[in-house]
Amino acid sequence: MDALMAALVAALLIHATDRTPWLMAGLGARYRQHALVLLGAVAALAIVNALAANGGALIAPRLTPNARALFLAIALGAAGLGCFGTLKPPESMTGWRTGPLVTPLIGMLTLGFGSAQFLTMAIALRVGEPVFAAVGATIGGAVVIAAALALGEKGAAPLRQRVARLPVGSLLILAAIVAALSALRLI
Questions:
Q1: Rounded distance, CA 29 to CA 38, Å?
Q2: Within its chain, how far is the Cα of 126 from the centroid?
Q3: b/e string for 86-113 if b means 16 or more Cβ within 10 A?
Q4: Nearest C-alpha neighbor of 23 from the set 162, 168, 145
Q5: Left if phi > 0, otherwise alpha if psi is -120 to 50, otherwise beta: which for 82?
Q6: Is the separation of the CB atoms in 136 and 4 below 8 Å?
């Protein structure tokens, strides 16, 4: 259960400050069938999170406990540093005629394996519960997607501004430092 909550909170923070709400708000404005948009996007999240968590489970037996903790620190640091960069707009997918279910599925798959999935892999690797890590990350991402669909383009726009992204990045960097010092047995 530790993996579920850790992955849920991490995915919630990371997806809220990356391109996910931007893409989903745009698709929600384009397709008024929010339930189908949500279903397609959550299906894509479930696929990539399951792959990431299973990857972590495959690597875990080959690493020492300290190496697993250091892997988690690197994933937290990468996610934190990503919050300090400038976001490029996601592909608008305006010419796509695949409908309100398949377009968000493909759109989320194109955003693909980002910081949230890297952290999901690290949590599954560190804690040893890949199913809970995948489920937690999927729930966290689904909450962000549902909120972006409900808020619309204007409501989701503040999430991509530096004012929202810098505190999340700072928190993730701080967690990375603590995890790294713990992995190196310095604290």
A1: 13
A2: 17
A3: ebeebeebeeeeeebbebbbebbbebee
A4: 145
A5: alpha
A6: yes
Residue 152, Ramachandran bin (φ over 0: left; ψ between -120 and 50: alpha; else beta): left
Indicate the residue type of 76. Answer: L
Residue of 181, 45, 180 lying closest to 122 (CA atoms): 180
Reading the chain (187 residues) residue by residue, the pLDDT tens digits are 788 999 999 999 998 888 888 888 888 888 888 899 899 999 999 999 999 999 999 999 999 999 999 999 999 999 999 989 887 877 766 777 788 888 888 888 887 778 889 999 999 999 888 999 999 999 999 999 999 888 888 887 777 787 888 999 999 999 999 999 998 888 7
